[in-house]
Amino acid sequence: MNDFLVVGGGVIGMLTACQLAEAGHGVTLVERGRCGQEASWAGGGIVSPLYPWRYSEPVSRLAHGASHRYAELADRLLETTGIDIEYSQKGLLYLRVDDAEHAFAWAQRQGWPLERVDASSIYAKEPWLREGVTDGLWMPTLGSVRNPRLCRALRSRLDALPNVTLAENVAVQRLAIERGRACGVETAQGRIDAGHVILCGGAWSGVLLAEHDVALPVRPVKGQMMLFATPPMPGGRQLLERVVLADGRYLIPRADGRVLVGSTLEQTDFDKCTTAEARESLWQSAVSMLPALADCEVEHHWAGLRPAAPDGIPFIGAVPGIEGLHVNAGHYRNGLVLAPASTRLLVDLLLGREPVIDPAPYGPERLTRQERAAV
């Protein structure tokens, strides 16, 4: 029996398992499909909240902590797995921001670089943006990763750790609770025991808890995205080289020249089907920012399910009323953004270490049983 059992093989679950194993503990990770194939794969890879000044302080605190760990994580994964997750800090251009003063006040409080830029500066950075842009905001240190590569690197790292057992294509049917304590999970292939159980199942985390009268209010919100193949541009440039955000939609460049556009926000329960309406909407958004994309091939169109908590703050910590059961879920659009900090916070709590971030705002006990049921 291993010390810890992690349910869910997304970035949150894999990072949690890595940190526990690297601290010397035996870990089993159970994933109903293949690791890294749900929301972690489907996201865009921007490692900052899209409009960070619009989030609560607890989310900003986690985002700030995570941003300082991504470069180290990228280097460590490249060294241990040989996989480059394509972490870069080329910045983000914001167009048509209607609360710029709020943004500058937030940036000053956080010590975060943010500046207003004029048309000449914008077109020097991204010459093929649509005509008529007069000004915008520029966040020079914003980073991004190629999230499918991050998923592959984390899985490769887990494969190499001798004290990790990976159980893929193993669906958890229910939690094993005995005398008020979580001691494992029941699966179609049999029971798996562990000293502690950690739910990192994203939008599915609340499903397992519901059987035990714990109504964790994490709901799925569908997001659809598309990927364009772009041609080489004059001077050895790419059609797009920095993240651009306008009216809630974003374009993300990849190192190979591809451009990703996202994303929709849809309340469709656990439906992951793509739609013609979303495809047209995403295409229009992309072309309105970068007109040359109208002549580029759409290589892929997909959907994923974000796990949304009602206040936007993830649930991180011990589940009230069930000893040995813990959760890290509800990151909404910021799973990749917050992963290095939120997993470090939970692992610190699990191992009795002093957390760098105050855990109080994230504790599942912040909602009473009655409030959870009402939600």
TrEMBL record:
SUPFAM superfamilies: FAD-linked reductases, C-terminal domain, FAD/NAD(P)-binding domain. The gene is thiO. It comes from the Bacteria. It is an enzyme of class 1 (oxidoreductase). Its EC number is 1.4.3.19. This is Glycine oxidase ThiO. Transmembrane segments: none annotated. InterPro entries: FAD-dep_OxRdtase (IPR006076), FAD/NAD-bd_sf (IPR036188), Gly_oxidase_ThiO (IPR012727). Pathway: Cofactor biosynthesis; thiamine diphosphate biosynthesis. Residues 3-349 form the FAD dependent oxidoreductase domain. Keywords: Oxidoreductase, Thiamine biosynthesis. One of its GO terms (molecular function) is glycine oxidase activity.
